[in-house]
Amino acid sequence: MSVFDSFANLAKGALSGEAGNHAAVASGLLDHLGGAGGVGNLIQSFNQNGAGGLIQQFANGQTGAVDPNAIEQALQGTGIIDGIAQRTGMSPDMVKSSLATVVPLLVNHLTANGHVTTDGQPAQNPMPEAGSLVQSLIGKLL
């Protein structure tokens, strides 16, 4: 069990309902990506799958939840949704729904703070540690 699995289980138990699911999905996403540094690959997947406009919206502060089907299309071919479902024990539909809330916040946080560009390249500031990033996201979800 990875530290992300432990955090996801703790978050699901400590937070109720959607907030717990979102926290577990955020942890599962960062685990799947290999930490915060993998977010650039996530952004590149969006761009390659024709969803670069969503990345621009997120980076510009439009962080409301998006259509889960748009998330599924943007992540097509990555295995992220199924990977998170396996890590968290949640259904792929629940994962998509949570990703529709988590990804806009994650992308906005990392682009606004100069950690990654909207084309998925590293920016001037080093990536935060995954644990502190998940904590920040949970704070925005509550």
List keywords for this structure.
142 residues, Arc Repressor Mutant, subunit A, 8 helices
What does this structure look like?
The structure is a single chain. The protein has 142 residues and is mainly α. The chain has a single domain, classed as Arc Repressor Mutant, subunit A, CATH 1.10.10.690. It is 68% helix and 0% strand. It contains eight helices and no strands. The protein is globular.
CATH superfamily: YidB-like
What is the distance, rounded to the nearest whole angstrom, between the alpha carbons of the first and last residues?
A: 26 Å
Question: What fraction of the residues are assigned to beta strands by DSSP?
Answer: under 5%
**Low-confidence runs of at least 5 consecutive residues:** 1-15
Assigned CATH architecture: Orthogonal Bundle
Topology:
Blueprint: H1 3-14, H2 17-33, H3 39-48, H4 52-59, H5 68-74, H6 80-88, H7 92-112, H8 130-141
